[in-house]
Amino acid sequence: MTVQRTLSILKPDATERNLTGAINAMFEKNGFRIVAQKRLRLTKEQAEGFYAVHKERPFYGELVSYMMSGPVVVQVLEKENAVQANRDLMGATNPANADEGTIRKTFAESIERNSVHGSDSLENAATEIKFFFTDAEIVG
Ligand code: CMP
Predict the structure, then answer these.
(1) According to the model, what pLDDT value does residue 17 have?
(2) Is the pLDDT of residue 1 over 80?
């Protein structure tokens, strides 16, 4: 297995409830290194651009406004097999279907307010990391 990087976002429901540290503790306890991190308010252009793949989905408009509704924390996580490992740790998109011990089972409130985003493939991870970070901002 090879060390990979994946893009993670702590969503507005997580920052609103002051869960940045609690979620980061779960990442670190599970062997992820947080090699880049910043807190920001997404602009409409950023939220629309980031989720452009979902443009045709009925929930796109709400998703974009939700992601702009409060601060987010964008992060690069590093670990062996990081993309799949983070998807396993996050749990199912809908917290109602998430396994015990996952971030979404522990913290998420609904399919929209589901606390975290994580890249779904290595290829998308590279694109999503570039969306938010320059190489110089990632310190392994
Ligand atoms: P995320 O991993 O950030 O990728 C797209 C997001 O759309 C997803 O998490 C959900 O929070 C959000 N979303 C809202 N409604 C739905 C839905 N009905 N099906 C899938 N995703 C949804």
Answers:
(1) 98
(2) no
State the Cα angle at 118 between 112 and 122, rounded to 5°.
145
Q: 24-31 long-range contacts, Cβ below 8 Å, gap at least 24?
A: 26/89, 26/103, 26/106, 27/77, 27/86, 27/89, 30/79, 30/85, 30/89, 31/79, 31/80, 31/85
Q: Is 43 helix (H, G, I), strand (E, B) or coil?
A: coil
Q: How far is the CA of 117 from the centre of ligand 1 (A)?
A: 9
CA of 136 to the centre of ligand 1 (A): 30
For the chain, report the end-to-end CA distance as a whole number of angstroms.
18
